[in-house]
Fold each of these.
Amino acid sequence: MLYKIAVGSSDGVNVDLKFGEVKKFIIFEVDDKKRKLLEIRNVDNYETSAETNSCDNYEKGCGSSGCSGNGNGCNGATDVISKVEAVSDCRCVVCKKVGFQAQKQLERKAVSIFDIEGNVDKILEKIIDYYAKIDERRLNSRKNVEL
Amino acid sequence: MAKLLDKQRYKCALGAMQTVQAINRALPILHSGPGCAQKLSESTGSSGYFSPNIFPCTSINEKDVVFGGVKKLDSTIENALKVVDADLYVVLTGCIPEIVGDDTGEVVSRYADNDKPVIYAPTAGFKGNNYKGHEQVVDAIVEQYLKKSETKQKGLVNIWADVPYQDLFWLGNIRELEKLVSELGLIPNTIFGYKRGLDNIKKLPEAEFNLLVSPWVGLSTMKKMERKFGIPYLHCRTLPIGATETSKFLREVGKFAGVNEEKVESVIKEHEDYYYYLIERYADLFLENRVINKQFTVVADAQYSLGITKFLVNDLGLIPAKQFVVDDTPKAYRESITEEFKNLNFGIKAEVSFETDGYKIHEEIKNHDYHGYPLVLGGYYEKEVTENLNGNFLNISWPVQDKVVFDNFYVGYAGGIRLIEDIYTVAVSRFN
């Protein structure tokens, strides 16, 4: 099964960015346990589109004291929606932390969330291994039904 | 293809949080997904100290499946200890952490030096149902908390009965058993319910013997305690309901404990006199053959199926149709329980089926000739099928929908009278 993983990392070695802080997602493509770097996806321009959004209140309310986070890079709900949109083709998002707003929006798009810190290679190895196991199971159970 | 199980009468082993809840001031800490606890939380009645079914839970998700949920468990225990004032903390694990391989025992062992005890019970659903889960919790207390006692308290008896909350009458039943045992001059010790708790748990190793009143639940724990503490056990398979079985029970306990035979007989006589006085007063009701059904079926867990069958045959003289044991009794115990069903007065033998599928049970009830309308004592699932057959139905086992029970009981002489009252209330009301 072919799928993509979006990683929030500042240096490509460690997962060290919160979902809101990410300006560039590292997108990996996985095919049958083999992973390759697909692209560096710039999500900055999504932010600008958000700024043009007429609903200013969100942006002012958030970012400082609106939510419990420190607001690093968070520009409110509209920003979250557009950023989620940008990674909605991925199977999962790997970030240091994912805020409540973003979690809910990602769930709506059926994108899994792994909020974990650490080495990109090690983390991806585990996730890919996990997905390989579920995919194999699903394939087998489908075969059984057909039989 | 996976098989479907229709109308099952038990929950998964994590349902043992009810067992923990039955111990005063004991708190379950759940290492499971958030849905597990919510699905299991429909039973009525709280512990009397904590809100029912609002327990600390690790709420593990997909991330913890991939990377392990040990960190979350550690912080959940740590914060539960800070926030919730309990005497005993019992970590219960669901399926997910056990499949993933979280070492719960290791995390819990970090709290060995804590002033309040923290123990854990592996209650993954794939290991069995909540009857097994109940055993796991009691096992955990025995293995992880208690130590062998050098001193024994004379006459102290630990009494164990079936699963709290799963058994609707658990509180009343265990209090009545305590009362009966104390009338023999022994000192009963139980750990569940009001004004019992950690103090009673601490007394467990000092007992002279364990008294298990259950066809199979808890038997492995009794053996464990025999090995670890050197406490012998007396296993009474039949829940004593009514005069015949209760007198047998008292004689058996008296003999095992070495109580003076005269004393035992005098206790029995006093109870039986009153019991038969009540029966005789209503003899016309019992002799009116249109009132009660000719044949009956019990659909319940092993303890009620066996206990009530014996009561209805031995005390009320009814004829058993097929009886159903629905608690998924482990195969090793089935033969001895089947034998007990054949051990009835007047040479009567009851056929018993260990069946968990409600559909099959209902088909058998429908196809059996009860020589009139049937009497069915079972879970709420049996209400509709019995009504369709124009029979009499009494809800005595899980699930319970048309009954509220605080501390009513069916055990002992008084319990037998309560059960007669309930059955005949149903029976006579059809003529009104």
Amino acid sequence: MKSVMITYDQAFQERIVETLTYANCRGFSCWPQVQGRGTKTGDPHYGSHAWPSMCSAVMTVVPDERVEPLLARLKALDEESPMLGLRAFVWNIEQTI
Amino acid sequence: MSLYESAVKRPIMTSLCFVAVIIFGVFSLAKLPIDLYPDIETNTIMVMTYYSGASADDIENNVSRPIENTLNAVEHLKHISSTSRENVSVITLEFEFGYDIDVMTNNVRDKLDMISNQLPDGCNTPYIFKFSTDMIPICILSVTADESKAALYKILDDNVANPLARIDGVGTVSIAGAPKREINIYMDPVKMEAFNMSVEQVSAAITAENRNLSGGQFDVGSNTYNARIEGEFSHPSQMLNIIVGMNGTAPIYLRDVARVVDGLEERSQRTFTNGEEGAMIIIQKQSGANSVAIANEVHEALPRLQKQLPPDIKLGMIVDTSENIIQTVNSLGETVAYAMLFVVIVVLAFLGRWRATVIICITIPMSLIASFIYLYATGGSLNIVSLSCLSIAIGNVVDDAIVVLENVTTHIERGADPKQAAIHGTNEVAISVIASTLTMIAVFFPMTMATGMTGVLFKQLGWMMCIIMTVSTTSALSFTPMLCAEMLKLQKKQNALFRKIYGPVEHALDKLDDAYEHLINWAVRHRKTVIWGCVCLFAASLLCASAIKSEFFPANDNARIGATIQLPVGSRVEKANEIAERLTSTWKQRYGSDLNVVNYRVGQAGEDDTFSSMSDNGSHLISFNMTLVPSNQREIGLARVCDEMREDCRAIPEIAKYQINMGGQQAGGGMGGQSAATFEIYGYDFDATDWVAQALADSFRHTKGVSEVVISRSDYQPEYQIDFDREKLAIHGLNLTTAASYVRNRIYGSTASQYREDGEEYDIRVRYEPDKRISIDDIERMVIYNGKGEGIRVKDIASITMRDLLPSITRKDRERVVTVTATLMDGYAMSEGVEAGNAILDKMELPSGVSVQVAGAYEDQMDSNRELGTLLILIVIMVFIVMAAQFESMTYPFIIMISVPFAFSGVLLALFMTGETLNVMSMLGGIMLVGIVVKNGIVLIDYTQLMRERGMGFIRASVVAARSRLRPVLMTSLTTILGMLPMAMSHGVGSEMWRPMGVAIIGGLTLGTLMTLIYVPSMFCIFGGVGIKRQRKSLGRKRELNAYYQIHKHEMTKSAKK
């Protein structure tokens, strides 16, 4: 089992849920309002006067074999509108109940 | 879910909600009445009290004064004035504006009930009228007749005047120029003397003969019958054969001593319309009634009434004031339409995309239409204030939508889905959109609290703007994102045609951006120069201010002129008629087709004519009523025509006094009339006040720019007084009443009885032949019979002398008053007249007990200036509070507030250059500028602050922000400026009313915007620099303190430990 953490501009919200569905990843947890800043480029998303936009984050735990197709879909989505910003990170899951 | 989120996700609900608003709005619009101003004339009540036989003096002391003293305690009373004339006292109560006239009327009625016991015996109960004498008639109908001429009055009274008077809101309907039928019995004094007969005897004989009587019932066999004596004349000629006395045994028939004339009243008014004689029907409205509604009902009623009249009587319309109102409102409506077109063009030019333009422009009608619902709900009307409001609003309602749209577009361009972009894009700007609306509301809300005359004008405007702004913001936060989500797409490549058209525009805008960036780059580095330049410009505009004339309200060209021309008192009606004819032909010739209708009345009005009896009337007076073609169809202005007419009157030596009233109402009497300086001279002593009035008037006549001077006090009227010697009367067995009634019966006539025909009654009046009562000799020769039947000549018991008597006494605020009104020529403003008058008064030494006060429109102007001043302070404070709250700073609002004076400089310069005057309308424009100019400042500062927060230095932030905000600022200003342009340029009917406002806003906003664009970045840098220095200083101090602490840490902590 792997966990995939996806952070993205709020505007992606619906597309992300869609992508998860297509990639057969049913379960996820979402933080709709998250602050953040890209490592290299990308505007800060602070929800402040100067940087009004916000990010969201989704964490999904999926079987190992589904990670690659999901990441591929996410990458395609990111490349479609690079200005918005979308990142995904994968962890190992030690144990679940 | 937030407002915009649910709006985007439920497009059907959102659009239908706004469709519902539009439907309600259109429905309200269809039902809205049309008027020239908001309800403004609802502040006068008149109380009329008849006390027959009393002279002006008696009326003043016994009727007017007690009533005045009681009514003075009525709430919200502004002025109480009274006119005491022979037989009648007219008290006019002027209330503060903006109170319910019905409540006032009830208060007045209560007070009158209290006083009715204290009035002298024989004095009638006071009547209350809800209109004032100077209220202009709203419709004048002409009547022509052939064979029905003799009975015209009766026919018109029954069939036209009464039905018209029943129309809701009509004050009075009076008939002029239709004399009533009267049977005159003219006695020959010589023959009467020969037969030893008196008028009274004849009169009694006629009364005794003209009777129908029931003789009671009597039984004949088994039946009961009525006995009836029918003696009433069936034809006036029958009267000739009645026996009025006996000479020895020979009967004296009426035909022996008199002739019977079945004719018309002797003294009556004649009216002429375009040179033709005929009757006229004058319709006046009640206070606060809607002229257009009444005129419409009159128009509707006319065909119906015409059907009931005999075929030879034709009704026509001479004057219809509603026409001008409708035309004025229509021409203002046109400017609103143009304004909308200009705004659309500006938006398209700046955005360069038609979808975006459509989205934004849908907001305009929606917000405007919503305000009609408010108008309908509160009983408002479509008038020049509410329509001007729409014109101003058009430029402002698009701003919020533009801000939202721009941000949504940015999101879409970043790659977001339109729906998501709409939600998040709106969310980001929602706070600043609401804040900028709050600033506008901070400007307009205080207007709703204005009181007085200004309150009447501004209350509606304030509420309308608040509502329009709120609706436009709501729509920007719900309808606009919804439309963006549905209509906007990622911009594809534009087609060739569009690029060809729009390319140059875009190129020009880019060039402008570059040039402005250069300018700001220079300005922020030469801050002192910029600030001093601004100060100099402001000072220069103040210099211009001294050359700007001020007036209360722009004169309205409603194409109507009223004129009252007086010949020397006592001139005969024939003379008056001749002069009137001469003037008519002169004017007809000069103005030709520009002059539509010339109507005039001459002669003494009958007793039943309310309209005429309330105003001065007499054989020496001519009253004109003229209508010209609408102002946009003629070259010459109404004020100019009036000035020329005054010249004509001055050239005729027979004319003693004249008053030409532009717009049909008295000059200086308030809104829309020609500007005039009015001075009120208070004092009890007639001679003293007369002297001051005369001296002031004489000096005024020699002042440049004064077109006419009118002294309100009427001339002393010469009268023949018959002074009976009481002793001689007693010797002859007579008393004063008997002797006086003998004289009256011979001149005025004694109403013997009524002649009945077809159910109508006509007076039978017995008196001397007209040519036997034309000189003092004739009066002296009159014979009075005493109880013994002896004839005594008037000259034996009385002396006849000629005296001058004041026909009326006018009082204001319980003091006797004379008003001197100097009407100013076209192009001269009221302020000049008042200055000239004050200069004259300064040189004059006033007798003791006499005081002079400036009144009329000047008083209103001062009141309204005070009111506007308070309003301005209130608005500035409110706007400051809103801005300070938004920026969480006191400095930025201060910077922005300082840009407001530049807007005022612009107003002054624009008025100076166009030669318009400073009046309520232009000041209104000035006050509204505060909001718009401040809005520009907010946009600039807000974005500069944003750049600072994103880490730029002050100068860099200022330059970048200025470049990026140039287009939004220009767009906001241009939409308003171009929205106002049709107003400032229009030449439609009534345009002279709103042109000053358009000019003021355009001037103020142009200069205000230009200055804001240059001055605000410089000022931002100055304050930023100061702020940084202060920060550095405090940091330095902190560091010093810390260093000190680090060095002395041990000692300090030790001492603490101890």
